[in-house]
Amino acid sequence: MNNRMKIIISMLLICMSVSVCGCSLGGSYSRSVGKISGSASSWTGEKRKEIELDKGQTVTFRYWSQLDSGELSIQLLSSQGEVIHAFDVNKKASIKKEVVDEGTYLILISGTEFKGSYQVEW
Predict the structure, then answer these.
(1) CA angle, 94 then 114 then 77, to 5°
(2) pLDDT, tens digit, for every residue of 6-44?
(3) Would you list the DSSP string of 30-57?
(4) Which pLDDT tens digit goes with each residue over 28-84?
(5) 18 is a domain residue
């Protein structure tokens, strides 16, 4: 096989792998022990991150989001599913929350045709 054919096949394989991997959600998403973040060009759905918190613990949440279009909601839910805090959209800030009940809490990110970026760290 000549060099020109190898280059064409390589380019086709690269294009196919990028199109398969890059179009599934229209953005990116990452979760780690103390962070949930993502960005999208058009995303509708939910992302969830469970966190274990101890009674009496004070947790600082640092967050920011940029909403270019669509809708975005970022919430902290208690272990009973109640909304403890709704994070402001299009804002960079931090809040401190004292944990009343020990348990598994949830950071819930919801988007409807969301275009933009977000991040919450604790």
Answers:
(1) 45
(2) 666 666 556 554 433 333 334 444 444 599 999 999 999
(3) EEETTEEEEEEEEEEEEEEEEEEE-TT-
(4) 444 445 999 999 999 999 999 999 999 999 999 999 999 999 999 999 999 899 999
(5) no
Distance CA(113)–CA(17), nearest Å, equals 25
Question: Has residue 94 been placed in a domain?
Answer: yes
Looking at the DSSP bridge assignments, the partners of residue 53 are 103
User: Which residue in 12, 11, 48, 45 sits closest to 27, CA to CA?
Assistant: 45
How many domains are there within the chain? 1
pTM for this model (two decimals): 0.72
Contacts of residue 12, Cβ cutoff 8 Å, sequence gap at least 6: none
Q: State the residue range of the domain holding 70.
A: 26-121
Q: What is the CATH number of the domain that holds 88?
A: 2.60.120.380
Query: Does residue 14 lie within any of the structural domains?
Result: no
Assigned domain for 5 exists:
no
